[in-house]
Specification:
By secondary structure, the chain is α+β, with helices and mostly antiparallel strands. Helix content is about 30%, strand content about 20%. It is built from four helices and ten strands. β3 and β4 form a beta hairpin. About 30% of the residues are buried.
Length: about 210
Amino acid sequence: MLHLRVAAMTASLCLLAACGQRQQAPEQAAAKPETVVSAPEQAPAAPQAAGDAATPASDAATPASPDAAASPAMPQLKLPLVDGTPYDLAAHRGKWVVVNFWATWCGPCLKEMPELSALDAMRDHIEVIGLAYEEIDAEAMQAFLKEHPVVYPIAIVDTFDPPRDFDTPRGLPMTYLIGPDGKVVDKVLGPVTAKSIEAAIAKAGGPKAG
């Protein structure tokens, strides 16, 4: 009888171990590649008003409502470009401006750059500006852009003092769509495409892609 009890207990333990392995397999299979890269940790967090909350990572590719964002409805942006030319967002009224926060080490950012460049080149009513959110000097950026050329202007953002009228990126890429009146139309944390940008413009009453 003792031998039978030991055998039964051994069989039960084996079954439990097998079940545990089967339960772990689906969890491993459910893992998906990330589409958003975390922003530099050294960048200080921008102050938020009471009740405001950062966009959760699970909603990375979901457009955020401009009313819910901490940034003002009509943001200002003045900074020098990599080539030394001054840039003023207010001077681009009448255009749909895509403000794209990115970095040279961000894979999803590099993947969307060719589409943003084509959008800027092919659509007269759309302009793009890339804000490099990283610690890099102008010379290194210019060398990088020779290997990854784009037609739109690039500026380097100080991660310790980012543009105050825009939310501090919690991940990259992060893109704002500014309307012809200078107001925020859309904000996306995660990759964008030419199609998604043109759809957002059409939804806001702008020209439809055609």
